[in-house]
Amino acid sequence: MVTVDDLTVGNSLPAPIIVHVNSVNWDTGKSRRAEVEIEDETGASLLLVDYTGAEQSVTWQRDHYYKITDCNIKAGTAEYPVYLAPSKQTIIEPLGPRNEDTSILIVGDTHIGRTEHPDTGAKIDPIGAFRQAIDYSLYKNVAAVIHVGDIYHESATTSQVETVDDCIFEPLENAGVPFYFIRGNHQTDEGNRQLADRRLVTNLDTGGVAVDSKVRIFGINHDSGGNIPLASLPVPASVSEPLSILMLHQTLRQLSGPRKGHVDLRDIGGQTGTQFDFIISGHHHDATSKDWNGSTILYTGASEEMSGNPAPIDRVGWLMTITGESATIERYDIP
Predict the structure, then answer these.
(1) CB atoms within 10 A of CB 151
(2) Band of the pLDDT at 98, cuts 50, 70, 90?
């Protein structure tokens, strides 16, 4: 998402920004239709000057949200060092009052590059399934999308990587929705370069990211032997957000039994000192979950049909809804 820190005087917005209106002063000067005090999604304040020459017809409303695209950035005052100045090319989309709930879409194991089911050989469409999930996330007005690993398979082509740019990352960036991910055990160099270049795409780590000040999401990239070096990772002992989630791409003892290379969640809890409300892992193409030690643990399953089990739960995503200090998660069957 674009924030005040991304704004450079003399330029236009690098991408759409979502703002909340704190106050509106109408008819503040001969050429000014309104002065609007706004804040970005981190809570940082700035001013928007709605000049009459911009010919904007939007009705600014206090405590409402707006998405602003293609807006000029100008030098301001000591109180507001920069301000937004819409032009005739600026698009201002009213989003209405923000629902008190926060929604997050979680997907995993898209394996872009595969074209056949690994067991049956049937034709599959990982990009189409991924796109359906992203369309659903935008329809649900999510605050973020999280991918739990294996975005790309090794067989991904340049054309497929470019298609993902067009139908996944561009729509998310246009909506100001951040995309967080962890690395799985399958990837491509070209896909990694793409992920590093996208402005709203972030590789999760053990510092975590906050979403809407309601949840902190941590991530640990895949380790082939299951030997996660938790003792040397800078995981905070506590978080200020009411909820915390850990994202992995591993086989978990608590879901798959005790075998070599399977991660034991007791080690994770002991090292971090943080009680995760959810521990969510990719890597397994068949979704399953259970309650364990006060947490919900979940294999997301694949977003396309890839499981070899007789009655698989794949071609799925998960919609997490956070209300107050509690969260629920429900399965989304990708059409």
Answers:
(1) 33
(2) low
For the entire predicted model, the pTM comes to: 0.73
Using one digit for the tens of pLDDT, what is the confidence trace for 261-279? Answer: 899 888 775 444 457 899 9
Query: Which residues span the domain enclosing 271?
Result: 102-333
Nearest CA to 212 out of 243, 188, 182, 189 is that of 243
- Same-domain pairing of 58 and 128: no
| 55 Cβ contact list (under 8 Å, min separation 6) | 88
Question: Are residues 246 and 218 in contact, defined by beta-carbon separation less than 8 angstroms?
Answer: yes
Q: Sign of the CA dihedral 217, 222, 228, 232?
A: negative
CATH of the domain at 145: 3.60.21.10
Dihedral sign, Cα of residue 150, residue 228, residue 146, residue 178: negative
DSSP secondary structure letter of residue 262 = P
Neighbours of 57 (CB within 10 A): 7
For residue 47, CA distances in Å to 7, 80, 239 come to 12, 6, 31
- Into how many domains does the chain fold? 2
